[in-house]
Write a structure and sequence with these properties.
mainly alpha; Arc Repressor Mutant, subunit A
């Protein structure tokens, strides 16, 4: 939309200009959503045809948000290693920090909670005191 030739605009002209831009932004957002739906459908078809593997471009699997990361060692075994090296009871937060520092990858927003659940479930670990765990 072209601006008026004069250097000053009255309030009605400014409101009209703002409304025109909002309308254009809404139109572009609708177009973007339509294209995104098409891309999602194409991605789903690629995943179906490739058996869930990467989308034809090579170079390994593409990971989107929410994709599960793979580690060389299970969290249970990593915690066992951490506690055996420590030789003394450790807190859940310290264990989680050591696991992350060792290169363990997780998409969890609450990784400390996952470590805590693992410590509770796995019979190789026992609670030494509240929030402190050691090997059995």
């Amino acid at each position: 939309m072209a601006r008026p030739a004069s250097g000053s605009m009255n309030l009605a002209q400014l409101e009209k200009l703002v409304q025109a831009r909002r309308s254009e932004v809404d139109k572009l957002n609708r177009q973007r959503a339509k294209v995104q739906r098409k891309l999602d459908a194409i991605d789903a078809r690629i995943a179906d045809l490739s058996g869930g593997a990467a989308g034809g471009g090579g170079g390994g699997p593409r990971r989107g948000p929410g994709s599960r990361v793979r580690n060389d060692i299970s969290l249970q075994d990593l915690i066992h290693q951490i506690l055996s090296k420590a030789g003394a009871p450790m807190g859940v937060g310290d264990i989680a920090d050591k696991a992350k520092a060792s290169g363990y990858r997780s998409n969890s927003a609450n990784f400390r909670g996952i470590v805590n659940q693992t410590l509770i479930k796995d019979k190789r670990f026992v609670s030494a005191s509240r929030g402190m765990y050691k090997l059995k």
